[in-house]
Write a structure and sequence with these properties.
Order of helices and strands: HHHHHHHHHHHHHHEE
Distance between the termini: 100 Å
Number of domains: 2
CATH topology of the largest domain: Serine Threonine Protein Phosphatase 5, Tetratricopeptide repeat
Shape: elongated
Strand content: 5-15%
Structural class: mainly alpha
CATH class of the largest domain: Mainly Alpha
Keywords: Signal
CATH superfamily of the largest domain: Tetratricopeptide repeat domain
Helix content: over 70%
Low-confidence stretches: 296-303, 306-310
């Protein structure tokens, strides 16, 4: 008699064998990455403004390929991702580390420029200037020094230090003057003395007559409003006291005092706002000549690109 195993038993054995084969196949499969693919993917995330992902992927590249010659650039791009995300303190820390670790290489120069920008974005303008002065003192490359002078000049412009900016731009060597449009910048900066300004003290004094300060600041509608409101309240208070309605007159006088002091404060504020607006307009005209720098991929890492607005 020949023994024949039940059909159910055969099905169970077959299924178990298939599961074991699949498990063995999965155990043999391995996820592998190569340096080129990892770097390119990290760069693609940075180019797509996916800054958090770029940080992770560049850090992964540095971790798995520590001897790759692109490690300095990967670290630089990690800092750039933090900068793009607005994490200026984190970016500054990484740029400082690059400066310390690669003191004589190209990433060091770019790291100095970006470190300066990080400090400027944090409102640490004086420190941003120190960064550029340090670079000029350490670098022996005229192009780098001139670029540092150029960015230093714009930091002075942002602070409204027109004469200091002009003096820095004038130090750019003749070979780079056309590149940085120095002639046009110095010509425009010479017009800074013609920026119209309003004296806040004068505006406050003229507001002794309600609306006078606003009129001085060319805010004609505000001047008319201030004059009519204050004149109306003064007249109402006068009439109340004249009719011996002292309580009503006192209340109206109290209200008028608030409007009167507000009229003076508003005039002083208008003068400051007028000056800020004129300075902003002047700075905007200057910015049309600003040359911007960016990094673009190159066969050996990256290259600085120059953009001029016409």
């Amino acid at each position: 008699m020949v023994f024949q195993p039940p059909l159910r038993f055969l099905m169970v054995v077959t299924a178990a064998a298939l599961v074991l084969c699949a498990a063995a196949g999965q155990g043999e499969a391995q996820l592998t990455i190569d340096a080129d693919s990892q770097y390119d993917y990290a760069q693609s995330r940075l180019d797509a403004d996916a800054y958090d992902e770029a940080v992770v992927e560049f850090n992964r590249f540095v971790h798995f390929f520590p001897s790759d010659p692109r490690v300095p650039r990967a670290r630089f791009q990690t800092a750039m991702a933090h900068f793009g995300a607005g994490r200026y303190q984190a970016a500054a820390t990484l740029f400082n580390m690059l400066i310390a670790d690669y003191a004589d290489s190209h990433p060091d120069n770019e790291a100095y420029f970006m470190l300066s920008r990080c400090h400027a974005r944090q409102g640490m303008v004086e420190q941003a200037m120190v960064d550029l002065h340090n670079l000029m003192a350490l670098s022996g490359r005229p192009d780098v020094i001139d670029r540092a002078r150029y960015e230093l000049g714009w930091l002075h412009v942002d602070q409204g230090r027109w004469k200091d900016a002009g003096q820095v731009f004038e130090r750019i060597t003749p070979g780079n003057r056309d590149r940085f449009q120095v002639a046009g910048l110095t010509r425009d900066l010479a017009l800074s003395d013609a920026i119209p300004v309003k004296n806040p003290t004068t505006a406050g004094v003229l507001s002794i007559i309600p609306g006078g300060g606003q009129l001085y600041c060319n805010r004609y509608q505000d001047a008319l409003t201030a004059f009519l409101i204050n004149a109306g309240l003064i007249w109402a208070a006068w009439e109340a006291f004249d009719d011996e309605q002292y309580a009503l007159g006192s209340v109206i006088s109290f209200v008028e005092f608030g409007f009167y002091t507000g009229n003076i404060y508003g005039a002083v504020s208008s003068a400051h706002k007028y000056n800020r607006d004129r300075i902003a307009e002047f700075r905007e005209r200057l910015s049309r000549r600003q040359v911007s720098f960016s990094l673009a991929p190159a066969p050996d890492g990256a290259a600085a690109c120059l953009t001029v607005d016409f």
